Amino acid sequence: MCGAGDAGGAVRTAIPRPATGTAVDPVALEPVDEVVLTTLVDNVFDALLAGGEGVVRAPLNSGQVLAALFEDGRTSTGLRAEHGFSALVTVRRGTSTTTLLFDTGISPDGMTDNADRLGIDLAGVQGVVLSHGHFDHTGGLAGLADRTGPRSMPMTVHPLAWTRRRIAAPGGDVFELPTLSRRALEAEGFEVVERRQPSLLVDHCVLVTGEIDRTTDYERGMPPSHQAWDGTEWRHDPLILDDQALVVHVRGRGLLVLTGCGHGGAVNIVRHAMRLTGVDRLHALVGGLHLSGPAFDPVIPPTVRALTELRPDLLVAGHCTGWRAQHALAAALPEAWVQGSSGTRYTLAAA
Fold first, then answer.
1. Which of 16, 148, 212, 293 could staple 264 via S-S, CB 3.0–4.6 A?
2. How many domains does the chain have?
3. Is 0.90 surpassed by the pTM of this model?
4. Where does the Metallo-beta-lactamase domain start and stop, copy by copy (predicted)?
C-alpha cells in the first residue's frame, strides 16, 4: 500500500497476480569492459578477511568516531553490518561510465554511513534498481534522499513492490512488514519506473530481469507463513513476483548476476538471465540466495549441484543465503567462493 489514506484502487493494484505479456527473448545486452561492484550493506562485516585478485576488503579503520575514553578522543568503527543488502554497481564501456545503486539495506542510515566511511560520494549515483519491495532492501532510500537532495532520481521497480505483506508463523507473533510508499518516494524526487518485463538500462549495458521464470522443480519460494494482502484477506505469497535481478555481460567472461534475496531461486534466476541474453556463461553470482532456515534446507543440495555445473568464476552468496548453504557452496566451488562482507569491492574486467 502507499499510505494510511489509500483505499480500493490502491489495494487492488497491490494484489499479487500472474505476469502478463510475453517475455522479451532474446535481449540484446551489450557487453561491457569493466564492472566494479561494491557491497555497501551485507549481514556481515569481517575486517580480517583477505582480499585477492579483483577483491578489495574494507579495513577495520574504515570509520572514525568520537569516543572520549580513548587517548585521542576517537576510535575506529569499521563498517556496519545489518540484515539487508545494498550494492553500488559501476559499469564502464569504452570511456562511458555509469553508477547504479542496487537496493539500499534495512536502516535509513546504514548504507549512507558505510558509503561515507568508504569515501564514496552517493551524489554520483545515476539511478536506483530495487530487487523487490521487502523493507530490508528498501529502508535506506530515506537516507539516500537526504544525501542526494531534491533532484530527479530514476528508480526501476516491479509494480508489486508496493504489496502489503506479513509473516504469520504458526503459534508465533504476526509481523506486518513495513510497506514501501510510492507516493512518498515520488515526493522525495524519485522517478518511479514500473516494469514487469525485462528492462535495458545504461545504453543497453545493464539488464533488469523483471519477473523470473520458475523452471526448476525444487525452488518453490516462501513457506506459508509469508503472506500478502489481496484486498480481502491474507493469502500465502510463495513467489514474491516482484523479485528481480540485475545482469551485466562482462566482455569475454560471461554474465554477472546480482540478486537481492534471490526469491525467484538462484538457479531459476541464472537460467532466466542466460535465456534472455543468449549468453551461456555465468561469470559471477553475487547477492542473497535465500536458502536460510528449515523450509529451505531441502533446496540446498540441488541448488549446489546446479551451480557447480554452471561453474561461475566468482560466487559471493551473502545476506539471506544462510550458513548451511554458504558452507555447502564454499565446499563445492572453492575456486569461485569468496566470503561476502560489507565494504568489499569486486572488479570484473573484460577478457
1. 212
2. 1
3. yes
4. 90-165
In this structure, are residues 125 and 140 in contact, taking their beta carbons and an 8 Å threshold?
no
Spatial contact of 338 and 52, defined as CB atoms under 8 Å apart: yes
| Helix segments in 25-164, DSSP class H | 110-117, 141-148
Nearest C-alpha neighbor of 299 from the set 334, 262, 331, 339: 262
**Amino acid 84: pLDDT:** 98
For residue range 167-222, list pLDDT tens digits in order: 999 888 999 999 999 999 999 999 999 999 999 999 999 999 999 999 999 999 99
- Burial (CB < 10 A; 0-12, 13-18, 19+), residue 211, is buried
CA 185 to chain centre: 19
70-77 own/partner pairs: CB under 8 Å, 24+ apart: 77/117
C-alpha cell at 260: 537481492
Domain that holds residue 273: 29-349
User: Do 26 and 273 contact (CB within 8 A), yes or no?
Assistant: no
Check whether 309 has a pLDDT greater than 60: yes
Please state the rounded mean pLDDT for residues 61-79: 92
CA dist 61 to 92, 312, 339, Å? 29, 32, 20
Please say whether the dihedral angle defined by the alpha carbons of residues 142, 146, 56 and 37, taken in this order, is positive or negative: positive
Dist CA 254 CA 231 (whole Å):
43
**Three cell numbers at 136?**
530490508
- Confidence at residue 90, expressed as pLDDT on a 0 to 100 scale: 98
Three cell numbers at 55? 577483491
In a domain, 7, yes or no: no
User: Using CB atoms within 10 A of its CB, is residue 333 exposed (0-12), middle (13-18) or buried (19+)?
Assistant: buried
CATH of the domain at 65: 3.60.15.10
Cross-sheet strand order for the sheet of 127-129: 55-56, 345-349, 34-41, 86-93, 96-102, 127-129, 153-157, 190-194
25: confidence class by pLDDT, cuts 50, 70, 90? low
